[in-house]
Amino acid sequence: MRLSPEALTQAVNLAINGHIAMNQTRVQTLSDWKGVADAEATRAGVFAARLARAGLTGPAPIFEGRAGFFKQVSGPFTVDVATFGGEGRPFRISRCGIKPYPAQVYCLTAIPAAIDVVTEAGGVDAVQSLRIDTTHLGYVTAGRDREKWRPTTKDTADHSLPYITARAMLDGAITNDSYAPDRLSDPALLALIDRITVAEDPALTAMQPKAVPNRLTATLRDGREIVRQVDDVPGFVSRPMTRDDVERKFRMNAGERLDPLEVRRVLDAFWTIDERPDLSGLLALLS
User: For 223-246, what is each residue's pLDDT tens digit?
Assistant: First the structure.
């Protein structure tokens, strides 16, 4: 928007003061809001910038004020703006990952580990118990709350290490269909979940952010033990997706809404988005 430093300051003041989000969005029972919260924050930020461009001022000093962000929310901190990118420095967006499965990021590596374990075990019935060792964030966000053992919504299930691991063991994959209502109440799934425990392993936590590991230890009914640890999957920053991987994911998500010709048209348009002088009409291709 080419805002002046003064107007940009007011945009920050407006955006922060009126839009402090709570993390209840992502703990216990998760709701539809989980998928909308980031978009709403973006919309609020853009609107704040438009108001500032029109001359509206916001509460200040927003960080250091007597009832500002430091006092009310975070405590004091400093920000190194040099890490934001620009002027020859890389932007953080180039370090973003892309999920290969429709599941929370801290659960992703549990999926191939679960498939390996059940394949070697010879089936789910051979597994007497399963322990999932995960990172601190994996435990707090996907393995601590009791709601994760009996998810009743898609949004809770896709943030549940027990559910995602059990579903992958039963189906050999995690797809959008993994969260259908009949899958959530599947008796075979619930019986398997009851044989799963989740714990934090500081050694795995220490591997972040270069890896987001999970380690599965299955005790079989014949006394054998199978251990599988997976540290990354295609799409992580350390292991970027190929173009084919990205297109495969897009087809999985859009294939039930668009015909193959429309899918190809959308992909061709978005692969060349950096060459387009005008973005109008781009999103209409998805309609």
Answer: 999 999 999 999 998 889 999 999
